[in-house]
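**Reference record**
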Amino acid sequence: MNIKSHLFRTLKNLLFFVGLIFFSTSLLSQEISGRVYDDTSVLPGVTVFNSNNKTAVVTNEDGAFTIKAAVNDTLQFQSSFHESQDKIITLAEYRTILIVELKQKVNTLDEVLLSGEEKEFDVEKYNADLSKQIENDIENNPFDYGKAPAGGGVNLLALVKLVISIFKKKPEEKIIYATQIDLIQLFEKDKFFTETLLENTLKIPKQYKNLFLDYCAAKQIEEALLIEENKFQLLDLLVVSSNEFRDIVKEYEANK
C-alpha cells in the first residue's frame, strides 16, 4: 500500500467520524413537531412533556406542537379528558410530522348512559331500610326516646330527631387555596414549573410574572394541585389563566 492511498483512506475515515459527530450533535439540539388528535378532531391544549430534558409545551388550536427532543427521548401527552400516552422518539420521526392519537376517557356517568342500565330509586326498599334502622335504634337506646305515651308508642319528637340525624350531612372539609407566595415559591424551586415554562409555554413576559401569579391566586387554585402528582392538572389551569391574563394585558396596553 503506497503512502498516498493510505493518507486518502485515513482522511476518508476522519471525515466520516467528523460527519457522524456533527450529525449526532445536531440530533441532540433538534426540535420535533407533531399534531395531536382524538377520534373526532384535533386537540388543542394538550400538554406535551419531554421527561428527559424536562421541557413542556401545549398544543395550539390546530393540535400542533414543536418541542426540543433527541432520539430516544420520551414525550408524555397529557389531557384532562383523554388517557395519557408516552411516545419514545425514533430517528425516522425526525423526517416527518409526529402524529399522536389520544383515546377519550370514559367516566362513570358516560358508562351509565351508554349501558342504559341506570337503576330506578326503590322507594319501598328505602322506606323499609329506614324503618329497620329506626327500630334497631329504639331497641338499643330506649331511654333516648323519652317516656312512651299511654298507647305504648314511641315519643314522636325523639323519632323526628332520629330521622334528622340520619339525613344530616357531615360538614364539608375546608378547602385551602394557594397564595401568590405559594405560586412564586413553586416557580422558584420546582424543576417542572420554571421561568422557562412561564415565559415560553405560558407566554408570560418576565415583568408580569408576579402580577400573573397574583391573578392566578385570586382565581382560587387549590393548594392540593401544587403537589407533584397533580402537576399536569395545575398546568391545564395555568394555561387557561395565562390566556385570560394576556387578553387583559393586551387590552390595557391598547388603551394606554
Summary: The helical segments are 3-28, 108-115, 123-140, 156-167, 180-189, 195-201, 209-218, 231-254.
